[in-house]
């Protein structure tokens, strides 16, 4: 049964006794009804418990952020006043703490990138006491329940395309920005809008009412100064920030001087940031959750004693599928993730979940194990479709199904895999990718040995960090500046958060 065929609400009993497990050890509140968002309370039932608990300080900060979202979110007098000031070009910031400042995340790229970007924006909002609003595109409310009680995290949409076209509000055409605006942090730093005093302090010549933070891959040197302490002090005086990113910025925030102490208090285990924040923020809506749990229970996944999740993403269109399959089979064999086919019988309680855009891999893996292993593939879309609600719902379903597996094999560089491993709290075996940017495929472009490597932590990789040390005024080796920063196994110049005891996952 495909996930698309049955999104009916299954007849299940209401939760009568809500425990700490249901609330993920304090990450979640009971301020949502069970029927409004079943995944909030049922997530723990489908995932093995973890010894890694959120810190009391993180829980307190989440409750504080929820109160801020309620006080300043859409529909409040504070939000209406802030929008009025933005539209009129006022750059007022209430220094006595009574005002509201905002961070708008601009939806960008595929679902995995967007979820990593939202997580980064949320953490930055928590660190800077800003209200997070998500410009999530047309399908955001179809994918996720609201994470904050008694308010919305979605940026209100302007009614009608004509009013948006003629409106002068920066919020009206926010999706038209792709790094080309003159009102980016990088461009403002170069335009004379900033004054540098004799002692090196920086301040606005005239504080802008809003700024774009261009933090996507390929961003320039001056935009990367976002990760410097002086620039963070500048940003504190701007009422509205619009963040454009397809990156997981969290490791960069850990290297930003004003945030280091706070982040270490929030996350004593550095490699559990997405594990906690992803489970706090992202709760599939009832239709998506119904699809996930229906497929999980109707297939042999629920009853399997051992579940292996395989996520295949091919970035070079001309790469031969057989080369990818050979790499996967070698990885599974060398890491001993599945028993040797000849030693298994038809009653073996092992299931393999395959997620890929093509059905070719599912068919070959099923043939490889000759019916001795139950091999499942929920969908095969053929190609990735951006801004397609149905496609995103299936993608989200498969991320969560992968997170329910005991073992994960993922494709390097894939944010889809990052989400699954983060929600699961499992270090995957990562298959290195073939070159992405080569125009033509040729023999010998396949990744070399080994066919896969164990990730050093469950944290996603920050693909394009800034190597600039603001205090030293030069580039540094990022994996040598802090014991909790390491290079990624799948992206040469990427960095990720690790813990000294990361092998506990």
Automatic annotation (TrEMBL):
It is found in: Golgi apparatus, Golgi stack membrane. Keywords: Cell wall biogenesis/degradation, Glycoprotein, Glycosyltransferase, Golgi apparatus, Transferase. InterPro entries: XG_FTase (IPR004938). GO terms for biological process: cell wall biogenesis; cell wall organization; xyloglucan biosynthetic process. One of its GO terms (molecular function) is galactoside 2-alpha-L-fucosyltransferase activity. Pfam families: XG_FTase. Its EC number is 2.4.1.-. The keyword Nucleotide-binding does not apply. Belongs to the glycosyltransferase 37 family. May be involved in cell wall biosynthesis. This is Fucosyltransferase.
């Amino acid at each position: 049964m495909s996930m698309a065929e049955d999104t009916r609400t299954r007849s299940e009993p209401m939760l009568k006794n809500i425990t700490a497990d249901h609330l993920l050890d304090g990450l979640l509140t009971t301020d949502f009804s069970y029927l409004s968002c079943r995944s909030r309370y049922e997530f723990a039932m489908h995932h093995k418990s973890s010894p890694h608990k959120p810190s009391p300080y993180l829980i307190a900060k989440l409750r504080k952020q929820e109160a801020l979202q309620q006080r300043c979110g859409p529909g409040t007098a504070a939000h209406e006043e802030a929008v009025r000031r933005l539209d009129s070009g006022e750059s007022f910031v209430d220094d006595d703490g009574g005002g509201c400042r905002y961070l708008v995340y601009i939806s960008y790229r595929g679902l995995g990138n967007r979820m990593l970007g939202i997580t980064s924006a949320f953490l930055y909002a928590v660190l800077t006491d800003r209200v997070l609003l998500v410009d999530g595109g047309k399908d955001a409310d179809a994918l996720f329940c609201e994470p904050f009680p008694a308010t919305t995290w979605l940026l209100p949409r302007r009614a009608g395309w004509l009013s948006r076209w003629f409106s002068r509000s920066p919020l009206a055409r926010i999706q038209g920005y792709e790094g080309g605006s003159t009102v980016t942090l990088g461009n403002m730093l170069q335009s004379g809008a900033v004054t540098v005093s004799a002692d090196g302090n920086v301040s606005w010549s005239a504080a802008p009412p809003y700024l774009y933070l261009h933090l996507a891959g390929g961003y320039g040197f001056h935009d990367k100064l976002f990760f410097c302490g002086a620039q963070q002090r500048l940003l504190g005086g701007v009422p509205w920030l619009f963040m454009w990113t397809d990156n997981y910025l969290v490791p960069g925030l850990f290297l930003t001087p004003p945030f280091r102490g706070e982040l270490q208090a929030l996350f004593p285990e550095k490699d559990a940031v997405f594990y906690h924040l992803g489970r706090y923020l992202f709760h599939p809506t009832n239709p998506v959750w119904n699809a996930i749990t229906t497929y999980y229970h109707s297939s042999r996944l629920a009853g399997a004693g051992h579940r292996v999740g395989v996520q295949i993403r091919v970035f070079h269109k001309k790469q031969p599928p057989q080369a990818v399959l050979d790499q996967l089979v070698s990885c599974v064999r060398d890491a001993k993730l599945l028993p040797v086919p000849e030693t298994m019988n038809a009653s073996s309680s092992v299931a393999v979940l395959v997620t890929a855009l093509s059905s070719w891999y599912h068919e070959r893996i099923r043939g490889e194990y000759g019916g001795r292993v139950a091999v499942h593939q929920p969908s095969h879309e053929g190609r990735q479709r951006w801004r397609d609600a149905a496609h995103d719902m299936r993608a989200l379903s498969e991320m969560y199904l992968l997170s329910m597996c005991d073992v994960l094999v993922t494709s390097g560089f894939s944010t889809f895999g990052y989400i699954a491993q983060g929600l699961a709290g499992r270090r995957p075996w990562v298959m290195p990718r073939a070159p992405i940017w080569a125009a033509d495929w040729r023999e010998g472009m396949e990744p070399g040995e080994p066919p896969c490597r164990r990730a050093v932590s469950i944290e996603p990789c920050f693909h394009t960090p800034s190597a600039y040390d603001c205090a030293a005024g030069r580039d540094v080796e990022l994996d040598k500046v802090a014991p909790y920063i390491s290079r990624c196994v799948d992206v040469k110049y990427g960095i990720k958060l690790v813990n000294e005891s990361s092998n506990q996952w």
